[in-house]
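## Example record

The block below lists the input lines for one assembly entry, exactly as stored, with component labels intact.
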Amino acid sequence: MAVQISPSILSADFARLADEARAVEAVADWVHVDVMDYHFVPNLTIGLPVVQSLLKHATLPLDCHLMIDDPDRYAPEYAEAGAGNVTIHAEAAKAPVRTLRAIRAAGARAGLAINPGTPVQPYEDLLPELDMLLLMTVEPGFGGQKFLDIVLPKLRRARAMVSAHGGAVWIQVDGGVDEETIERCADAGADVFVAGSAVYSADDPARAVRALREQAQRATAHATWAARAGS
Ligand code: DX5
Ligand code: ZN
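Predicted structure tokens for the full assembly:
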């Protein structure tokens, strides 16, 4: 199973975003962009104009995580702009099927995110509409928070659910993912790892990405779910 690393520029220097994206381009799979609107979460970051600018400079695909109140209205614009993946929150979407289809129709991968307190089972029927399921491992809104271990049982359930449907949907974890927690995430079933402070607070972000990938690959190689998926 392929491990993917998506460094979050939320912890980068916002005045030097192109350089910060370039710092990981040789070693990461995605650049994770956290879009926040002061409503869905108590923080305000960047929106479509900055994403459009970043798309001109970044060589890696952008993984846009929309923490906004009205994803049905705004998410397709990120896909149309050229984002590689657009993730909407289940708690915010009023018409998730329509919105996920619009994201795909615009040429991006479609992701659905759920907060730590949101159960995953109700979304089983939506799996055919998804390319990625994002399980938040902190309450969304800020970088540098402590990883919530209580999400791990849900992560195992999500992996079992995805496996039962053929395993094509990626499972991403976001929040508090670092050298201390990434192996537990890989072991429980994650295959796409967002890391903000663990990458951008490091002296050498590229080296941090390589180290996280090695840890995740080692843990995946020993994970029961991956052995089953590979057999
Ligand atoms: C939080 C964001 C995350 C954030 C993660 O709401 O969705 O992507 O950047 O930051 P760390 O890895 O520092 O927890
Ligand atoms: Zn995020």
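Residues 205-221 form the longest helix (17 residues). The first strand starts at residue 4 and ends at 7.
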